[in-house]
Write a structure and sequence with these properties.
Layout (H helix, E strand, L loop, with lengths): L16 H18 L10 H12 L1 H20 L1 H6 L1 H22 L6 H11 L2 E2 L22 H4 L2 E2 L2 H13 L11 H16 L25 H6 L2 H4 L10 H21 L8 H16 L33 H18 L9 H13 L10 H13 L9 H14 L5 H12 L6 H15 L3
Length: 452
């Protein structure tokens, strides 16, 4: 294959029909959706970068095909076809690792090439997650950002810790991520790191590469949904228990969460001025990055999520909440991450990240000091978001049962039924809430709590 004539055969595999389909899909939009940044001529430079890589690098060719087989099959045919293509998949994986070993053996004391970095990062987030492959796609409205950066299909894979550690080491040998020169590769390196951090619910390892586009900067836009402009985060901003220096990082984040949500809303309901999707994704990734790092969260090179014990069903005694404590700040971070996972960085629910966030919130809320949060509206929002994160497949788990019980206890007097739900949603709009996504989830929760 070559950039000038991308469909000219160069390797024997190029003549396999499935490989031809993968390459056509990749050139025709697959790579562009991974890094949707356009050049002045309207083309996507990431396509040229990958085309050049696979034209002269075996390790790039086989790792890109190995990854592309999963994403192409998922997008075109769904999960059932993936199992049927396992033999070809494992063959490509074997050839990718053989080529990778040759590259590493030849590296010596040299600085690793962009092609080698790209190959290792591809392998670091391409391991199938058997549990996730059993999870069907969700039926709820989703953020339009789910269509980009392979977030739908990557949710069915899992980060591979050994490859990630190798990736971080190789990038350090280059002198850091900002010394990577090929267009788009720095973006994909940072994206792989962001996905890994999202799955482990820790801070990313690499420094942030994304910036706030000027026209989307906080306070610069008067467009968008009026409720989002006027109500989003209002209750949180003025909540007495959230005042003070401990909460300032969270308060500083709210305007960015709001403006990204407004931008995402404009992708669903376009206006006269069309937004550049690359700008929206840059702002979204930056905001999600900052959310993961909230309250000085440290990065972790361990990607395995810790096993969580089944909670006790015995309710603890209520005491007053220690709102300046690290556990309370973590409740805020985890709840904000649920919102970010729904709207801003919508990794597929099959990844299990949302339910892990809900489980951690449940464990913290079940501590005696947090049996009741000091502000009832904050209690509403935290518990509601944790319940939402249990949908669609985890409502029967012990953690979800406890969260649903707490939400019912909080709402049954004043917010039961359809009328009560609408009032409850109006309250939620003063927190971190986007109606397009969140309301469909909370309606199902209400149906579960208050069946008619």
């Amino acid at each position: 294959m070559s950039w000038e004539n991308p469909f000219r055969y160069r390797r024997d595999e190029d003549q396999i029909p499935t490989i031809q389909q993968i390459l056509h899909t990749s050139y025709g939009g697959g790579w562009a959706s991974l890094v949707p940044v356009k050049a002045e001529d309207g083309t996507f430079p990431i396509v040229r970068t990958y085309a050049n890589f696979i034209s002269h690098s075996d390790v790039s060719y086989y790792t890109i095909l190995y990854a592309g087989l999963f994403h192409h099959t998922f997008q075109r045919h769904g999960l059932d076809w993936i199992r049927a293509l396992y033999p070809l998949w494992f063959e490509l994986k074997s050839k990718a690792f053989t080529a990778l070993q040759l590259e590493i053996d030849a590296l010596g004391s040299q600085s690793p090439s962009d092609e080698l970095l790209s190959a290792v990062l591809t392998l670091s987030v391409q391991e199938p997650n058997p549990e996730a492959l059993q999870v069907p796609p969700i039926k709820y409205p989703e953020s339009p950002l789910a269509r980009f950066q392979l977030l739908r299909s990557v949710g069915y894979l899992k980060p591979e810790p050994t490859h990630l550690k190798a990736l971080y080491y190789l990038v350090s040998r280059r002198g850091g991520i900002h010394n990577v020169k090929s267009f788009g590769i720095i973006n994909t390196l940072a994206l792989a790191d962001l996905i890994a951090a999202t799955c482990s619910i820790t801070a990313p390892v690499f420094p942030c590469i994304w910036k706030v586009p000027g026209h989307l900067e906080a306070g610069s836009s008067e467009s968008g949904n009026r409720s989002l402009r006027e109500d989003f985060g209002t209750w949180l901003r003025y909540m007495p228990i959230l005042q003070g220096p401990s909460f300032q990082p969270f308060m500083d984040l709210i305007p960015d969460l709001q403006n990204v949500t407004i931008a995402v809303e404009r992708l669903v309901n376009p206006q006269e001025t069309e937004l550049d999707i690359g700008d929206v994704i840059s702002y979204a990734n930056l905001t999600h990055y900052r959310t993961l790092k909230l309250f000085n969260q440290e990065p972790s090179l361990s990607i395995n999520l810790p096993a969580l014990p089944v909670p006790s069903l015995e309710p603890p005694q209520a005491t007053s909440a220690g709102t300046n404590s690290a556990p309370f700040l973590e409740i805020l971070r985890l709840t904000t991450l649920i919102y970010s996972n729904l709207v801003i960085f919508p990794l597929a629910v099959a990844s299990g990240v949302r339910f892990t966030l809900a489980t951690r919130i449940q464990r913290l809320l079940w501590k005696p000091e947090f049996r009741r949060l000091q502000d009832p509206y904050l209690d509403f929002w935290v518990v509601a978001m944790a319940c939402i994160a249990c949908l669609p497949h985890k409502l029967g788990t012990p953690e979800a049962v406890l969260l649903l019980q707490r939400l019912e206890n909080l709402t049954k007097v004043s917010y039961a039924g359809k009328d009560g739900l609408q009032t409850f949603i109006e309250i939620m709009k003063g927190h971190l809430w986007w109606d397009h996504v969140c309301s469909a989830y909370i309606r199902e929760i209400w149906q579960h709590l208050y069946p008619e």
